[in-house]
Design a protein that fits this description.
The complex is a heterodimer of chains A (97) and B (480). Chain A has a domain of 38 residues: Orthogonal Bundle (Histone, subunit A), CATH 1.10.20. Chain A has three helices and three strands; from the N terminus they run H-H-E-H-E-E. In chain A, strand 2 and strand 3 form a beta hairpin. In chain A, helix 1 crosses helix 2. Chain B has 480 residues and is α+β, with helices and mostly antiparallel strands. Chain B has three domains: 286 residues, no CATH class; 114 residues, no CATH class; 61 residues, Arc Repressor Mutant, subunit A (Orthogonal Bundle). Helix content of chain B is 41%, strand content 20%. A nine-stranded mixed sheet of chain B has the order 3-7-8-11-1-12-13-14-15. A three-stranded antiparallel sheet of chain B has the order 6-5-16, with no helix packed on it. In chain B, helix 4 links the parallel strand 13 and strand 14. In chain B, helix 8 packs across helix 9 and helix 13 packs across helix 15. Chain B is elongated and about 95 Å long. Classes of the chains: A alpha+beta (97), B alpha+beta (480). The interface between A and B is large, with 35 and 49 residues.
Amino acid sequence: MKKEIDLTQVRYIAHLSRLELSPEEEEKFTEQLAKILSYVNKLREVNTENVPPTFHVLPLKNIFRDDKLNLSLSQEEALSNAPKHKYKQFQVPRIIG
Amino acid sequence: MNYQVNIGLEVHVELSTKTKLFCGCSTQFGAPPNTQICPVCLGLPGVLPVINKKAVKFTIITALALNCQISKFCRFSRKNYYYPDLPKNYQISQYEEPLAKNGYLEIILNKRKKRIGIERVHLEEDAGKLVHGTNPEDIKFSFVDYNRCGIPLMEIVSCPDISSPEEAYIYLIELRKILRYLKVSDCNMEEGSLRCDANISLTLPGEKMGTKTELKNMNSFKEIKDGLSAEIERQSHLLNKGEKIIQETRLWDPKKKKTISMRGKEEAQDYRYFPEPDLLPLEISKEWENNLRLSLPELPQQKYRRFIQEYGLPEYDAGVITNSQEIADYFEKCVKYYHHPKIVSNWIMGEILRLLKEENISIEKIKVSPEKMGELLKEIEKGVISRNLAKDILSKMFKTGKSASQIIKEDGSQQLSDEKKLKKLVDEVIKENPEAIESIRKGKKKAVGFLIGEVMKKTKGKANPRLVNNLLKEELEENL
């Protein structure tokens, strides 16, 4: 069977997800992801020629809400889970110079 | 070399709904940081977004005004990227199935019409606001306010049909006018409710389109014009030297007046869009589309043409008056009370717009009702007040909301047309200014104007200028 995923792809995905992986983890995840993909690939065996694509598992559409105000969190609650905050704002490492 | 310029604009507009796109948090600008957020717009686990119907309606209305085809079926996608302005690490946007596509906007440049294609109009959520630390102890940090996160953002993407910075400028002015007529956004650039990025490429005639760059960080229409000019100059300079354009994102630096490469972000963008599983698809019925089409107001260009035809306004006047729907409405109401459209338009373009600007108020809050404005203009026509006096009276009306007749009564500012009184004043002035008389005798006609001015001074501007002029001429002829 053709290999579904290789080390380069795992490193690329890890980078896009901002994950730092050890070389062991990279190996391990390559293997695991390949297994997952080949399992999901079983679906390809099903004949779907006359089946329209499913956009959503629920047979619903056009579920709207009105433009009405709802309560927001208090500032304290909003910041309560932040590892760091200052000036009532979430503090993060500086990204751009 | 003479390159053909291709510019496409991506305009982001914050819709003026009361609440956010997927939750009931307020969209009010200027609230203290992180006071208008909830589990939904923070993307906490397990929450479910539900779309704001008004935001969808505003987007469809805009798309219809831009002559677009409305999609019968559309859905949302997740655009994945890691940046602290988005707490979810993805933005809910639209990708393959925008709400609308294939429209156009007509602009007029040097009296010639040109259609700029609209590729798509879609709906997405805005991101939070990052402020980079400036204090020495904060220099390694940025601070995030998520109030803006989740505010409905409409993206309007033009085709690369724009062929100069001037055209881009006019396109934006026209687009903003339409958005304001539709009342879907206040389009305030300072508050970030209208933002614009540009794609630019240069092409030699007969060749296929050149490599484009994306230009960001332009914070006013003027900066957009300047930024585009600078980028066109940079690209043509490189091409003339035989060098290649690198496809990249560049930032406009308004201080250095040039565009700078946004290094570090050069890796290919990979947003891994996939359908948003938490939202249900939208099916826009023909009925809804037709109802919204019928609800469209008269658009700026239709109004402009009507004002020329119906009121006989010059093109320039029609342009200024229809710049804002509220000014246009005020004009039409005034004309009902005073049937000389050109005179009304002169007073609105001159005095009214000046007073509004000086006092920094909008026409909706003006104290001079159209009826009172009409009355003032009638007083001038009857000769009760001079045009100059009317200007003073108007600024008093503007401040107090009183009517012209009331102010004239209170100030005794009725125009002085009593011939006997005026003749006496004219005689006085002639006696008091022998040098002026001497100059007139020597043929200097200018001094006549000076004498008229002196009479006006004595009457605090109330004298009927035509009468003074006649009286003065008679007296001078006798004396000389």
